[in-house]
Amino acid sequence: MIELTGYIDVPEGRREAIAAALPLHVELTRAETGCVRFDVTPDPEVEGRYNVSELFTDRESFNAHQARVKASAWGEISAGIRREYSIRERNDFKK
Fold first, then answer.
1. What is the pTM assigned to this prediction?
2. Whether the Cβ atoms of residue 35 and residue 85 lie closer than 8 Å to each other
3. What DSSP state is assigned to residue 14?
4. Which end of the chain is more exposed for a tag (fewer CB within 10 A), N or C?
């Protein structure tokens, strides 16, 4: 499994557009083949920060997700926004 964790810091002038686009992004991602978990939630302590937690069944599914996002409306709306992510392979995950 491939796990991504981290956050995206949305600048003040882009927060409205990101908040409006996020529900569809989450819905489309959760419907992707290989998506086990996809959560993007506002950070309770840092304004404009969204915490991100993703889990995909394998590298192929994760890479397909990344490619789809780059070509999507979300990819366009969120382009250039600062992100801090950690990606790792997990063999210990149980559903």
1. 0.89
2. no
3. G
4. C
10 backbone dihedrals φ, ψ, rounded to 5°: -95, 120
Burial letters 22-39, b for 16+ CB under 10 A, else e: beebeebbeeeebbeebe
Residue range 36-83, pLDDT digits in tens: 999 999 999 999 999 999 999 999 999 999 999 999 999 999 999 999
| Predicted local distance difference test score (pLDDT) of residue 91 | 84
- What class is the 2-89 domain? alpha beta
Please state the domain extents for the chain: 2-89
Closest Cα partner for 5 from 93, 70, 76?
A: 93
